[in-house]
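Let's do one together. I've listed all components of the complex below, 732 residues spread over two lines.
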Amino acid sequence: MRPVIQFQPRPGILDLGWGHPRPELLPVETWARAATRAARHFGGQALTYGYATGPAPLLEWLSAHLNRLEGGGTAPEQTFVTGGASHGLALVTQVLAAPGDTVLVDSPTYHLAFRILADRGVSVAAAPEGLDPASLTTRLRTLRASGHRVPMLYLVPTFGNPTGLSLPDARRAELISVARAESLTIVEDDTYRELCYDGTAPASLWRLAGGAPVVRLGSFAKTVAPGLRLGWINADPAVIGALAALGYVDSGGGVNHSVAMQMAAFGDAGWYDDHLAFVRGQYRAQRDALAGALGVSAPAGGWFLWLPMPAGLLPAAEARGVSFVPGTRFYADGTSGTTRVRLSFSHLSPADLRRAAERLTAAVRP
Amino acid sequence: MRPVIQFQPRPGILDLGWGHPRPELLPVETWARAATRAARHFGGQALTYGYATGPAPLLEWLSAHLNRLEGGGTAPEQTFVTGGASHGLALVTQVLAAPGDTVLVDSPTYHLAFRILADRGVSVAAAPEGLDPASLTTRLRTLRASGHRVPMLYLVPTFGNPTGLSLPDARRAELISVARAESLTIVEDDTYRELCYDGTAPASLWRLAGGAPVVRLGSFAKTVAPGLRLGWINADPAVIGALAALGYVDSGGGVNHSVAMQMAAFGDAGWYDDHLAFVRGQYRAQRDALAGALGVSAPAGGWFLWLPMPAGLLPAAEARGVSFVPGTRFYADGTSGTTRVRLSFSHLSPADLRRAAERLTAAVRP
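Okay, and this is what the predicted structure of the assembly comes out as:
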């Protein structure tokens, strides 16, 4: 059997390694209705070559939605539709960095970002853990003094991958000040903002800075469905213009036009808000099931727990029928994080998460 | 008004410059049915992270379809799903070429390919017009002798853009021999193969070579709808593996999973074959309307006429209410082709094409 999807089950293993949505939460019927609605509302305009930055109906619904969420700060002209946040990172790196450059990344951070950056031919350097402004400035100046061009810093500051935690508000302001003073672009991966379970999410770097020097990556992968391959970049119009001028974006008429038009129909009908409320409740219950069973504190949003665990636990855990991603994967050096693990609560039901927690606890204290 | 689509009408101008489908021919209702069918058949598997090379239902339907069309030659394992042919060219260039390399391109050829290649940081060099094997070998060896790495040659050999013409069969075999002898990869943009109006299309380079040294780019943009941003690459498994290993492809779970699953449903239902038969008849009529009104011979397939015209005709043509793309745009040097123009018959109705032909004739002989 050839594979259909990325997830491959392993017999007997409850796998907390996958940052994937729980299949039952995907909006299968509603998305088919959105396709019908897009056909009725937009006709052939939903299927021909689209406008390079994204079609007006999506740019307008999305910026209004973000402005309701954040109290303003995003115009359609500051928005470019992508094939998801990871595609957004690839595109932003293509226009902001050149092969041979060095890109700073948060420590720890989303592990596949390292490969996306490497594909552009840039070197990846870890920013000081915690992003203390003085240490960050020193790291940046040291790299530059030794001849490295360092155009950007990548991080997931809100309900982050892998930690589930958020950069404190005061640190956000300091980070923007450093970026301004040092001519560094901050690439803010804001994928998890809307998966907030207690209260509200911290203000985005994008909103706090009022645009540059921040570029924000957004995605519909976690709020609606990853298979849609739809997300966006918020950036100042010069960056948006550079993205729209890429040859394959111009040639293709935008990146994912028909899905963008379907999302505009889905959003305009109110189905986005309904679905988000539904998945928030479900993921909150999943989070509570896993964090409760493990007796750890629950992150306020996102999909992950980031926990201290004995180094080298994975084989013993898998022998008990549970798996996870080892912490080392999330550090650019590949060696830090030996006593940390990332547990995802996005993919399994509360009952399975409780069973997984029992197995993990048994592996830690056999 | 913010733009929704790439096409922007110009008052009073019948524009033969746009290589876009005629809006009335887009399968608006059938595509909405395909979305519903994909939801019913595949459920959540249509919406989650997909398999990196593309989902089995599409790879299997597509390779069976290509094998019916070509009498064999394409396996699912030789296929990678892309966001269209131009995205395919960007991806192939990323894995086959490095910044600083030189890429050979046919003369004339698809003009936006120049920008897609330039975005990878490679230089573009024109292959000898007509691709005579001795001249091509000399050009290649001269470039390499002067220190250029030349990994690939790009061309649109079948019902090509801009010419509408096809590379003769004998020249195809010679080209493959040169590529084998000189370790050159041929990137065959095969976008127009199925838009064939008289008899059958010439055998593809991919089929003739039996795989390497050819990489083929295919697309659903012309046969179904460009807004879907869906196409494919045929290549040997080593190239497919390199594509699947790209960070953003792995992170995203394939390039355009949900649309790929919808296309699998569309193909499996027989709607692809029905729609192709329909658009073939329509584009044949459009071709006949334009070629007949201009009194020129009709190309056997594709979307374009490539005609000799007086140099500098565009302003006089636009003053008469007709436009086109000047021939110089399709040459890497930007200066050849002054007495050629590309006329697209894809976008306008037969009646409008006849009117456009009248205006063009009047501009040539005022």
